[in-house]
From TrEMBL:
Coiled coil region boundaries: none
Domain CRAL/TRIO N-terminal residues, every copy: 61-86
Domain of life per record: Eukaryota
Gene3D superfamilies assigned to the protein according to its UniProt record, in alphabetical order: N-terminal domain of phosphatidylinositol transfer protein sec14p
Record-given protein name: SEC14-like 1
GO CC annotations, alphabetized: cytoplasm
Protein backbone atom coordinates (compact mmCIF):
# COMPACT_ATOMS: atom_id res chain seq x y z
CA UNK A 1 0.00 0.00 0.00
CA UNK A 2 1.79 3.10 -1.21
CA UNK A 3 0.91 6.75 -1.03
CA UNK A 4 2.45 7.15 -4.47
CA UNK A 5 -0.03 4.91 -6.28
CA UNK A 6 -0.94 6.48 -9.58
CA UNK A 7 2.12 8.71 -9.77
CA UNK A 8 4.72 8.06 -12.40
CA UNK A 9 8.21 9.39 -12.80
CA UNK A 10 8.59 11.33 -16.04
CA UNK A 11 11.87 11.43 -17.88
CA UNK A 12 15.15 9.74 -17.10
CA UNK A 13 15.71 9.11 -13.43
CA UNK A 14 17.22 6.66 -11.01
CA UNK A 15 13.78 5.26 -10.29
CA UNK A 16 11.34 3.31 -12.40
CA UNK A 17 7.67 4.02 -11.74
CA UNK A 18 6.15 1.27 -9.66
CA UNK A 19 9.48 -0.14 -8.47
CA UNK A 20 10.05 -1.06 -4.83
CA UNK A 21 12.29 2.03 -4.51
CA UNK A 22 9.35 4.26 -5.38
CA UNK A 23 7.21 3.00 -2.51
CA UNK A 24 7.47 5.55 0.27
CA UNK A 25 5.23 3.82 2.77
CA UNK A 26 5.86 3.56 6.50
CA UNK A 27 7.42 0.08 6.26
CA UNK A 28 9.88 1.14 3.54
CA UNK A 29 10.85 4.30 5.44
CA UNK A 30 11.37 2.41 8.70
CA UNK A 31 13.38 -0.37 7.05
CA UNK A 32 15.66 1.71 4.83
CA UNK A 33 15.67 5.22 6.30
CA UNK A 34 15.20 4.65 10.03
CA UNK A 35 12.52 5.66 12.48
CA UNK A 36 10.98 9.00 11.59
CA UNK A 37 8.09 10.82 13.20
CA UNK A 38 4.90 11.13 11.14
CA UNK A 39 5.74 14.79 10.49
CA UNK A 40 9.24 13.86 9.27
CA UNK A 41 7.80 11.12 7.04
CA UNK A 42 5.34 13.62 5.61
CA UNK A 43 8.15 16.09 4.84
CA UNK A 44 10.17 13.39 3.09
CA UNK A 45 7.19 12.26 1.02
CA UNK A 46 6.20 15.81 0.03
CA UNK A 47 9.79 16.75 -0.90
CA UNK A 48 10.16 13.56 -2.98
CA UNK A 49 6.86 14.29 -4.79
CA UNK A 50 7.91 17.90 -5.40
CA UNK A 51 11.21 16.67 -6.91
CA UNK A 52 9.41 14.22 -9.18
CA UNK A 53 7.09 16.97 -10.41
CA UNK A 54 9.65 19.74 -10.87
CA UNK A 55 13.13 18.30 -11.34
CA UNK A 56 14.31 17.19 -14.75
CA UNK A 57 17.02 14.57 -14.79
CA UNK A 58 18.13 12.23 -12.06
CA UNK A 59 16.11 12.23 -8.86
CA UNK A 60 18.28 11.90 -5.75
CA UNK A 61 17.84 8.77 -3.66
CA UNK A 62 15.65 8.95 -0.58
CA UNK A 63 18.67 8.85 1.75
CA UNK A 64 20.11 11.92 0.01
CA UNK A 65 16.82 13.84 0.23
CA UNK A 66 16.51 12.89 3.90
CA UNK A 67 19.99 14.30 4.60
CA UNK A 68 18.88 17.71 3.32
CA UNK A 69 15.75 17.58 5.47
CA UNK A 70 17.71 16.61 8.58
CA UNK A 71 20.31 19.32 7.97
CA UNK A 72 17.50 21.93 7.84
CA UNK A 73 15.56 20.51 10.81
CA UNK A 74 12.83 19.32 8.42
CA UNK A 75 12.09 22.87 7.25
CA UNK A 76 10.67 22.17 3.78
CA UNK A 77 11.44 25.59 2.29
CA UNK A 78 15.07 25.57 3.43
CA UNK A 79 15.55 21.95 2.38
CA UNK A 80 14.11 22.69 -1.09
CA UNK A 81 16.35 25.73 -1.49
CA UNK A 82 19.56 23.93 -0.58
CA UNK A 83 18.63 20.79 -2.49
CA UNK A 84 18.03 22.90 -5.61
CA UNK A 85 21.38 24.64 -5.14
CA UNK A 86 23.09 21.26 -4.79
CA UNK A 87 21.39 19.80 -7.87
CA UNK A 88 22.22 22.91 -9.90
CA UNK A 89 25.86 22.76 -8.81
CA UNK A 90 26.07 19.03 -9.61
CA UNK A 91 24.60 19.65 -13.07
CA UNK A 92 26.94 22.58 -13.80
CA UNK A 93 29.99 20.57 -12.74
CA UNK A 94 28.74 17.31 -14.27
CA UNK A 95 29.00 15.46 -10.97
Amino acid sequence: NSINDGLSVAGPSELVAGSADDKLDADYIRRYLGDLTPLQESCLIRLRQWLQETHKGKIPKDQHVLRFLKARDFNMDKAKEFLCQSLTWRKQHQV
